[in-house]
């Protein structure tokens, strides 16, 4: 399902959240600073290095920790900061990522029915923040995102989530297909929200352990994930516009799941 980009972010925070304090310094730069950030085990969303970077240690340490490195021209680094970056900039995540295995185990141990949200390549930080806000309010147990091609969780995402990202676990996974297979083996049904079906979201059973998949703003859920999903569900539409914004679609399907579970 393809979605439009997000409109203006929410103007007011949800009633029981306060906007979190965030550090304006969302990245570190300079070879030594980046090395120390890597050694400290900080969560890094992106690591940009100059193509001709002489420090092999950064590349080796990033590979050891499973952090993707983007080799870019110096002009791109200069557009991010004019300070002495020495050819290395690391974007530090505003949150600590959780492990999906721990989330599922903990949820079952508490006697709860897992409800997981999988976001396939959603790149707009305001869309991501708005989805996180809805998910936390509705009691979703975790959001799963891919390690590549996903929105950076920065101050904008934190602000748009109105604090929800302080409470809602986010799991960053290398391979969404493998993650879906794990969830299915753990007893969860995977429902992909897509317009490539005539089945309505209102005809689905969300009372059992469920993972809901939502696709990118540009081209929706990948064909591979659609084939891997247990069921497909579409949001009924009667207007002339072809699709909903992804954060609005998330609200519709998440709250249908919550309605069923409350009843």
Tell me the name of the CATH class of the largest domain: Alpha Beta
Q: If classified by CATH, what would the architecture of the largest domain be?
A: 3-Layer(aba) Sandwich
SSE string, helices as H and strands as E:
EHEHEHEHEHEHEHEEHEH
Rg over alpha carbons: 19 Å
Task: Describe the structure concisely for a colleague.
With about 260 residues, the protein is an alpha/beta fold. It has helices spanning about 30-40, 55-65, 75-80, 100-110, 125-135, 155-160, 175-185, 225-230, 245-260, and strands at about 25-30, 45-50, 70, 90, 115-120, 140-145, 170-175, 190-195, 210-215, 230-235.
Descriptive notes:
- The protein has 263 residues and is an alpha/beta fold.
- It has 2 domains: 27-92, 60s Ribosomal Protein L30, Chain: A (2-Layer Sandwich), CATH 3.30.1330; 100-262, SPOUT methyltransferase, trefoil knot domain (Alpha/beta knot).
- The chain has helices at residues 31-39, 56-64, 74-80, 100-109, 125-137, 155-160, 176-185, 223-228, 246-262; strands at residues 27-29, 44-50, 69-72, 88-92, 115-119, 142-146, 170-173, 189-193, 210-214, 231-233.
- The strands form 2 sheets. The chain has a 6-stranded parallel beta sheet, sandwiched between helices.
- α1 (31-39) packs parallel to α2 (56-64) and α5 packs parallel to α9 (246-262).
What structural keywords apply?
60s Ribosomal Protein L30, Chain: A; 33% helix; 6-stranded parallel beta sheet; alpha/beta; Alpha/beta knot
Explain the layout of strands and helices.
Blueprint: E1 27-29, H1 31-39, E2 44-50, H2 56-64, E3 69-72, H3 74-80, E4 88-92, H4 100-109, E5 115-119, H5 125-137, E6 142-146, H6 155-160, E7 170-173, H7 176-185, E8 189-193, E9 210-214, H8 223-228, E10 231-233, H9 246-262
InterPro entries: Alpha/beta_knot_MTases, Ribosomal_eL30-like_sf, rRNA_MeTrfase_TrmH, SpoU_MeTrfase, SpoU_subst-bd, tRNA_m1G_MTases_N
Pfam families: SpoU_methylase (PF00588), SpoU_sub_bind (PF08032)
GO molecular function: RNA binding; RNA methyltransferase activity
